[in-house]
Request: fold
Amino acid sequence: NTTYRNDIAGVGRDDGSCLTQTKSKSENNDAIVTMSVNSFNSDKSFMMWANDNAAMEDASNREYNKAQVKSRLNREWRIQETGTVSSATITFDLANITGTSGIGTNNLNQVVLMVDADGDFTSSVTLVEPLSI
Reply:
C-alpha cells in the first residue's frame, strides 16, 4: 500500500523457515504500536501493519463521528492478515501523546481503539475498549 508504509512490523509463522514471530514492534523511534499473538492456527500465517506517517496529533483532524468520540489520533494504521492468525493483543504507548492540555493529560479511562471499515472514520466504526491501561 503506497500510503501505509511506515513503521512496518509483523508477526508470523513459516514452518519451512523455522520462523515463529509472536511479538513485534517497528524499531523506528516514533513507533508506538506493539502486537503479540499466542499462536498461529496454520503455517504461512502472517499479520503485518504499518502507518501513514501523519503527524501523531492534529487538532484540525475532524475525520471521526463526534457522537462516538471527542478526538482521535491523527496517525492511522492499516493491518493485513494472510492465513489464519489467532487473536492479537495490541499495545499503544501513549506516554508522549499530549492530550488536550499537555503531555500526560489524557484520561486513559476514555481511550478506545477505533476500527474503521470504510476508510474515513465517520461511519462503519467499531470502538474497542481496552482490556487494561
